[in-house]
Every structure is written in structure tokens, then in C-alpha cells.
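Hey, resending since the last one bounced:
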Amino acid sequence: MGSVYGNSILNISAAAAADSTQGCFKERLGLIFWPCPTVLFGRECYLFRYPMNREEMWGVPGDAEWDVSNVLARRAWVLQEQILSRRSIIFSKDLLIWRCPTLSTNEKYPLGIPHAPNVWLDSHRFLQCVVHGITSLIPKESMVDIYTCWYRIVEEFTSRNLTYEEDRLPAIAGIAKKFGRAVNDSYHAGLWRHDMIIGLLWRAARDAGTCTTRSARVPSWSWASINGGVTYSPLLMGGAYTARIHMSPLVDILDVSDPTTSEDHPNRVKLGQSLSLSGVIWEVTRVENEESRLALVDNGLPVAHSIRDFFSDFRGFNRPDREFLVCLPACVDHGWHPGIQESGELRKALWRRSLETGIDEYEQFNVIYCWILEAIEGNQGTYSRVGLCRLGYHKTIEVSKMALFGERRSITII
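The C-alpha cells again:
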């Protein structure tokens, strides 16, 4: 798909068609959307009927996933067509839409949508620039992050429909192949080696009602292992922005056991993939008086207060037979401090200094993210992932010290 759509001159989408038996054209009242040129007070301008608030506020051309009439926008496979095609004409229910890396527009705004966001605010256009090497349109601002654009696309992709769940990785493989070339990184079951810690911090979307099982062919640490939507929010800041959190790792990624995904077959996932990490592990105990019903224990003593938020990867996790759980601290999210405009690096420096002094007036804004793992019976030191959690905004520095300077263990997640 990367070769076909990536090398096409123009992609035509019958976005309002219910299936392949229908075409591009629908009956509609076009006058509602066409601009009417006129002269007011000696100036040429355009008048419109029924202005669309989403266009006015966000620069949306009218092909977004919120449009329930756009059947294609709900299909996972089609995302590759939308991203990899350099130019697209979309026949939607009401509008004829044009999209390319430099412009999003429609009949209502033939010269471009007013207030249209910069390319780095539009995940589709931003990723188009990345995979096609259009560097002149990619902003040089430090807050713009290419990997974060990938996570935005993963969120959108996993919210779409797949007929066969085993297509979870194949349906995004064309984008992954071109993205990997652009960032010069190796691809492992939906994650990137150079940004592995952030990539591992996905969680099942709260509205992912179908997320009940795991794929037997995808490792538990991959977002592709569950059959529902995933999210990286609030790790990715600013809504549609391609900025990222400012974080300090508490774990070391040692190795990914699978060979680098083949360039010709980036969708193939081999059985037995594993991830080796080094970090401090705490036991997890079940408690009834906490909202998450889970708490951390170190040598029989409680750690911090408890797990503040626990996000299970799939429904049915809280079965009685799931007993031996551990928590592996992953990173500290330094967040945005009210009244402090310093760069992310300076905020990280404030946190590092607090590790020495034990005093951090911004401690409450530092959030520790952890993975909840389940031991694999008969394989010592081997676990599978069952969820993601955040520790409460209490004793962050104390917990950070324990995670950084405590007894570290090497474990394997499959």
C-alpha cells in the first residue's frame, strides 16, 4: 500500500458511499456551501450561508472522523490511503474536499480554509510531510515532535473498525515502513526503539467496549495486543499539538528480542517476541479501601500512599485467579507547572536537584507512570503486561529515589 498510494498522483475517495456499490456523487443542496462574492463598503468579500463552526474554529475541511456520514473515516485500512497519498479529493456527503501536505480546503473555501491550523497541528498533514520527506514544511520549533505525531495516528487508527483483528499491524504497516525510513528507527510490533519508553505508555481507551481479549500473536507490551482503541493522552500535550511530555526515565530498555522488522514485511510479528528491561519492582497487593483497589508493597511495607489511577488493558482483568502482580516504575512526567515558563529541560533539572535536597515545591505536579505486570507461571523473571497506572501526587521524590537507586532487577515482558 505504501508503494501504490505513496506514488499515486491523486487519490479519489467516495467518502459518503456506504459500500462499493455506491459512487462518488450524492444529491445535495450545493448553494448552501458555495461562497457568494460581493462588495461591501468598497471592499470585495465573500458571504456564506450556514457557516460551519468546526471549520471556522479548527480549520477542519469536513472529512474528519466526527462526520458519521463518512464511512471511510471509520475504516482502519483506509487511514493508510489518507496519509500516504500526496493529494486527495474527497467526495463527502455535502462537500468536495481537497487535502495535501500544503493545503486543506473545500468548495466553501476554494483558496484555503481561514484559520486553518499550521501543519504541525494537523496530524494527517504533518505525517504526510514526514513520510514523503517534505522537510521544508516541517517546523523547526523545539516543541514539535515527530514521534508524537505517530502516537496521534495510533490513537486514530485504533479507534477505527477492523473486520479481522489479526490485521491490527498489517493495516498500518505501509505508514510504519515509510515512517521508519524517515526517522531512521527500528520498528517493533507498533513501537519504535528510539522512543520505546513513551511508546510503552499506551493505555486502553475508556470507551473501548470491545477491548476484552489479547492477540496471541502480538506481545502484551504492544498497543496492537488488544482489540480496542488505545490512547496516549494526557502524555501528549495540547490536544492536536505534536508536542510531548517532559519526562525522566526510571527504567532502562535493555533489548527487544525480535530481529528488526523486515522492510519488505513490516506487518509480520513473530511469536515469542520479548522486551528486556531493568528497573525496581514492587509487589502489588489488593486493597478494598482504595479507588484502584491496588496498592504497592516493598518488603512488606506500603510504598507512597497507593496506586492513584489504574488502567486495565482489557476487561476481565480482576479475576480472583490473578494474584501475583508487580509494578515497574517507568518514568516521571514533569507536567506543566503553574506560573513557571521554563523549558522542559529546566523543569527536569529542578526535579533532579530535588533528588539531592529532598525538597521540591513542585512535587505535586510530577506524576510517576508505571506498568502493572503479571508473572508468567513457570518462567522466573518473565511477565506479561496487564495495565498502566499512575502513582498519587504524594511523595513523588521519595518514590523516584527508590525507583532510581533501589535494587534493580532485569526482567522480560512477553
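Residues 2-194 form one domain.

Sorry for the duplicate.
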